[in-house]
Design a protein that fits this description.
56% helix, three-stranded antiparallel sheet
Length: 416
């Protein structure tokens, strides 16, 4: 970093200097900004204008410390809405989380797909299902499956939400594609939008500030004296503002919502597909994050509450459709409830693409028994072969995939 960026005259007061004043006034502390200078770039491909701009200071944001703020003060109607959303989430989890493990798994993958789509990573249910069993020809589908892994990791670490846990979530997401980015916070300045930090829509904090900002966020995450839903929404907005990684911040930040909801006891076995609710209006979502940075936490809390209600309604429709599909299979598949074929039908509710070797491993049966059971499901038109490779044929459950695609279409309805 250029020494000019570190000179005292270029420093704004630390956010903590204004903490007591902001808290006592009843407002949420907004971002501050400080001038910074880009590190020298000797690339021969830079234009003259780029070289000139690189010597000019730009404004990087400085996130306020929030861990010690006395309370989250919201308008009464927003606080009430957030409380109702928390109750709805807990009820949804109680209804589906304890007895319907298969549906819980498919809801988590649906949330992963929606969260990825907010970042313009789209793929159909078939491609995602095949990627989950090792098909790597569709990059977006592979990334969505990695996002599901990151969400699973987030839920596993919900009882230990520290900096190592967040780094582990990011590693699950991008460790295979960008191993150089994982295991640590970013070491460069990043920007959102624009062609440079001088024209960017938003410039997150300089990387020197990230460790302290994340330490403050982790302390905020581990408070137990705040309403859980409001805490999750604000923690997400603060995380996105810090932007601690070169890439994957949106997906990790939304996984963090679910980890915190589980940590605070609102959920136990179900991932409420909140991102599917946000997909209905991504413009409003990004606007809410912008408003948070100006000192307005109410907008992101309200939007996330509304998204939760939409997501729960959509999730119920998905589960209802899958139940109907499974019940209808019973009329086609005349087998005992403990038969291998019926056990595969239950597996398809959480993993709608399979191979014979996968079925053999999941059910603990021989390869030949797996082949025979798959053949019965194919005869009943429950499974459809999609690969001509005789040694490792791939099969999908079209009706389950259709239900998942319907879920995705409902999530995007009215999207701006």
């Amino acid at each position: 970093m250029n020494d000019a960026a570190n000179a005292p005259m270029n420093r704004l007061p630390a956010a903590s200097d204004h903490l007591a004043e902001e808290a006592s006034s009843g407002t949420w502390p907004p971002l501050q900004y400080e001038p910074r200078i880009l590190e020298p770039d000797d690339s021969p491909y830079q234009t003259h204008r780029q070289r000139v701009l690189a010597k000019e200071p730009y404004l990087a944001s400085v996130t306020p410390e929030i861990a010690s703020l006395t309370s989250i003060r919201l308008p009464s109607d927003v606080a009430t809405l957030a409380s109702e959303a928390a109750t709805a989430i807990a009820r949804f989890d109680q209804e589906f989380g304890s007895t319907l493990a298969n549906f819980s798994a498919i809801l988590l993958r649906s949330e992963s797909a929606s969260s990825s789509e907010i970042e313009n990573l789209t793929a159909g249910a078939k491609a995602i299902a095949l990627a989950a069993i090792g098909e790597r020809s569709k990059r977006n589908a592979t990334l969505i499956v990695a996002n599901a892994t990151a969400m699973t990791r987030a839920l596993e670490l919900a009882d230990h939400l520290d900096q190592d846990a967040i780094l582990a979530m990011h590693a699950s997401l991008l460790g295979d594609e960008h191993p150089e980015w994982v295991g640590h916070w970013r070491t460069d300045q990043v920007r959102i939008g624009g062609t440079s930090v001088h024209s960017a829509f938003f410039v997150p904090p300089h990387h020197e500030r990230v460790p302290a900002a994340m330490d403050d966020l982790v302390r905020f995450l581990n408070r137990r004296d705040l309403p859980a839903f409001e805490q999750a929404a604000i923690a997400h907005a603060q995380f996105e503002t810090i932007h601690p990684f070169p890439d994957g911040n949106g997906r990790v930040g939304r996984a963090l919502i679910h980890a915190l909801l589980k940590s605070r006891g609102l959920t136990h076995g179900v991932t409420v597909p909140v991102s599917a609710g946000l997909l209905a209006n991504t413009g409003a979502y990004f606007d809410a994050l912008t408003r948070y940075r100006t000192g307005d936490p109410a907008t992101i809390v309200q939007l996330m509450a509304e998204a939760s209600f939409d997501a729960i309604n959509n999730g119920r429709q998905l589960v209802d459709q899958l139940r109907e599909v499974h019940a209808e299979w019973r009329t086609r598949l005349k087998v005992r409830i403990d038969s291998s074929a019926w056990r595969i039908s239950e597996l398809l509710m959480r993993q709608p693409a399979v191979t014979s070797s996968l079925v053999s491993s999941e059910l603990g049966i021989s390869q030949s028994m797996s082949d025979r059971a798959i053949a019965r499901l194919a005869e009943a038109r429950i499974l459809l072969e999609v690969s001509g490779n005789r040694r490792n044929r791939q099969w999908v459950a079209p009706e389950v995939l259709s239900a998942l695609d319907n879920f995705a279409r409902r999530a995007k309805r009215g999207r701006i």
